[in-house]
Amino acid sequence: MPLSPTKSLKILRILALWEGFSYLLLVGICMPLKYIFNIPEPTYPVGLAHGVLFVSYCILVLVVTLQYKWSFKTMFLAGIASLLPFGTFVADKRIFSQQK
């Protein structure tokens, strides 16, 4: 049973926040621990979680794009947001929260 557009968008917004937090945790905490303090242990589980969240986010952006008939530009910006620090938070505020 496919998700309704409203439910998909709600899941995307939650996933965007989790993906953004995992990215900041990975880049802001785990990578300095690994490369500055020689503590590599947290990098693998956080990196794995971030990878799963990133792929899930990208797939869900495509699903929501089809459901809401977003333009290529909107889809592109939502996708690029996952590559920038704080990008998914901005996308949530400027793109996802504006959808009805």
TrEMBL record:
Main location: membrane
Keywords from the UniProt entry: Cell membrane, Membrane, Transmembrane, Transmembrane helix
Record carries keyword Transmembrane helix: yes
GO cellular component: plasma membrane
Listed name of the protein: DUF3817 domain-containing protein
Annotated ranges, domain DUF3817: 9-95
Lineage start: Bacteria, Pseudomonadati, Bacteroidota, Cytophagia, Cytophagales
Topology term for the membrane: Multi-pass membrane protein
InterPro entries: DUF3817_TM
Residues passing through the membrane, by range: 20-37, 44-64, 70-91
Subcellular location: Cell membrane
